[in-house]
DNA sequence: CTTGACCTTCACACAGATGTGATGGTTGGA
DNA sequence: TCCAACCATCACATCTGTGTGAAGGTCAAG
């Protein structure tokens, strides 16, 4: 498939697909006319890239992680440099920290939303607009 | 405590603490001489901010999330605008996606590392250096 | 009083991810 | 044949989070 289709199927601007390639995250073939030609697996790959970027990982790190996610059932153990392994271990640790931070915050948001819903009496249900902001504290038995 | 101590205790450059304040994430008191004065809870708050920033959230979003994490046992239900609630729900969803993406990738890294360790025979244990990179595939029964 | 270690504000610089547009080649259908 | 819809490269701009440093105020200790 060409860049346009991949862009559409992944919801990614063409610009970004070229950028990821420039960063070495994507290596499409080229048609005789110079057009980029992507394989089917590129779709998941791009989705992975975007997810990791959105989770705060820089392309440089994603580039090192991607080989671990290659295709299912086949793990590419290439150039397993001591240094690469160390990097992966370090990044895995950082990812764990991120996960913990995100889970903590997400749960806190959930608690908050639940508390707000509890506090929202359907009393003033008549008006869908409540312009002035309420400002009070809720004691919660954690 | 003043900015220097907070910086040291959180491992954060002073520059960043001022920046977070500029973005409305931190609101320290001011001493009569103009120095910023932080309370004890600022330490955790800064750590939270940094963790979320590192997880890909922009300050604009963190600003909306922070009130949910305020102090333990007391949830501040302030200005619970319909719009704020909607935003929080949306961001919570995105955080969940990030978490899933990170977990998937982290697990893949773990599998990879395990496979590499398995492949690393202590056979050539004599030489601590193995300059040339091995390049092969491992079939793994997922 | 002076020195050094703090603090203030301000401003410019940078890197990374992304937006936008100019300029031009390829290709397939009206 | 010519137009529309793709594609290519290149260059510049933007936004965010950071780094760095200048110019100057505060304060405690020598």
Automatic annotation (TrEMBL), chains A, B:
The keyword DNA-binding applies. It comes from the Bacteria. GO terms for molecular function: DNA binding; DNA-binding transcription factor activity. It comes from Streptomyces pini. SMART domains: HTH_MERR. PROSITE patterns: HTH_MERR_2. This is DNA-binding transcriptional regulator, MerR family. Residues 1-68 form the HTH merR-type domain. Pfam families: MerR_1 (PF13411). InterPro entries: DNA-bd_dom_put_sf, MerR-type_HTH_dom, MerR_fam. Keywords: DNA-binding. The keyword Lipoprotein does not apply. Gene3D superfamilies: 1.10.1660.10. Residues 120-142 are annotated as: Disordered.
